[in-house]
Amino acid sequence: MIIVRKAKNEDLLELYNIEIECFKNDILSKNSLRNFINHKYHILLVAQQNQTITGYILTLINPRHKLARHYSLAILPQYRRQSIAKQLLLEAESHVIKKQGIKLEIRIDNKAAKILYESIGYKAGKIKPNYYEDGCDAIEMIKILPKRI
């Protein structure tokens, strides 16, 4: 059973190891992860199975912006294709209040991610040329959230 919860300081090493395994070059530092765990506005959620953190999502919330932004989503390779990313995305959305929606960027060649995001209501938007370090373009995706009172 997968449990989704807010990240804690004790999760730092596992989160950092997920960064290394999933992103190789462009990783968040331990210090950055610690700051995100303790940030007043941003949301860092983890997926936990038994005692293992299997993935995380980092959603940035800037009080001055209309849209929140999914900054990073990572699932350990051996836990992929188990709907963990979908659970993390939906839970993160439930924490985003007082915003019109959420945006994110994905690699233009990441068809599986595009299918996942579209399945839960994200719409493809503009192309961002040379967005990634290796020169790959990104697609911006946006989901408008229902108004909450």
Describe what this molecule looks like in 3D.
The protein is of the alpha+beta class. The protein contains four helices and seven strands. The chain has helices spanning 12-23, 30-37, 84-95, 111-119; strands spanning 2-6, 43-49, 52-60, 67-75, 101-107, 123-128, 138-144. The protein has a seven-stranded mixed β-sheet, sandwiched between helices. A hairpin with a 2-residue loop joins strand 2 and strand 3 (52-60). Helix 1 crosses helix 2. The protein is globular. The model has no long low-confidence stretch (mean pLDDT 91).
Total helical elements:
4
Give the end-to-end Cα distance, rounded to a whole number of Å: 32 Å
Rounded average pLDDT: 91
How many strands in all?
7
Strand percentage: 25-35%
Largest sheet: 7 strands, mixed
Structural class: alpha+beta
User: Which percent bin holds the helix content?
Assistant: 25-40%
Q: Identify the strand order in the major beta sheet.
A: 1-2-3-4-5-7-6
- Rg over CA atoms, rounded to whole Å, is 15 Å
Enumerate the spans where pLDDT stays under 50 for 5 or more consecutive residues. none
The SSE string, one letter per element, is: EHHEEEHEHEE
**Overall morphology:** globular
In a nutshell, what does this entry contain?
The chain contains 4 helices and 7 strands, in the order E-H-H-E-E-E-H-E-H-E-E. The protein has helices spanning 12-23, 30-37, 84-95, 111-119; strands spanning 2-6, 43-49, 52-60, 67-75, 101-107, 123-128, 138-144.
Any descriptors?
7 strands; alpha+beta; 149 residues; 28% helix; 7-stranded mixed β-sheet
